[in-house]
Amino acid sequence: MNTILFTLLLCISLFPIFENSVQCSCESAAAKEGNACLLNESKDGVSCDVENNKCPNINYLEGKSNTLSLPDNKHNNKNARGQVVTGTSPCSLGSYVLDPWMLKLAEVVREHYRIKDWASDTVVERLCSSDTIVKLLNALQEKKFDDVGNCGVLVVTLLFIRLCNYSVNAKNVNWKDRCMYQWCSLLWFSSFHTPYR
Fold first, then answer.
1. In tens digits, what is the pLDDT along the chain, a chain of 197 residues?
2. Rounded (5°) CA angle 32-33-36
3. pTM of the model
4. Domain residue ranges in the chain
């Protein structure tokens, strides 16, 4: 059974055209079993607004399906990291701007903010580490930049990316705390203004 499941997952990741038929097959098998159901799935796509994730979630909310599509949290964090450090999609929170140039001015290791390996979870964790935050705060004290508000937005954003990762990876944390960490991160990231919202 595990071999079949792995093969199905491999087929979905290599040939996304099969994802709907694989989901239907799993739901049919669960219905035939009678005492089983497909609870959730995770498809390619880093957010809930990607069509392959959006449709199952709308069907779930409308009561047409019992299956949720859950994007991989680490993909979301890598996506957030990309938005934070590349500057290609400017973000603001009130009158403050998320300014990736501060990372360079604070002498954060270049490999942490000049992304070469988009798939690395380790690079995200290092970027969002206490070392990076200490460098940013020290640079602020040393007057390498004057924007206290912009620095605050960058520091808190890095903290929430880290907290979001921690909520998924922590093994000995109460589930209620983990949910609260996810919720707080959601509130922070959904408060940004971008050219698209």
1. 333 443 344 445 545 555 667 767 777 777 787 777 666 666 655 555 566 677 777 888 888 877 777 766 777 777 777 777 777 777 888 899 888 899 999 999 888 878 787 777 788 888 899 999 999 999 999 999 989 999 999 999 999 999 988 888 888 889 899 889 988 988 888 888 876 65
2. 115
3. 0.69
4. 2-69, 73-189
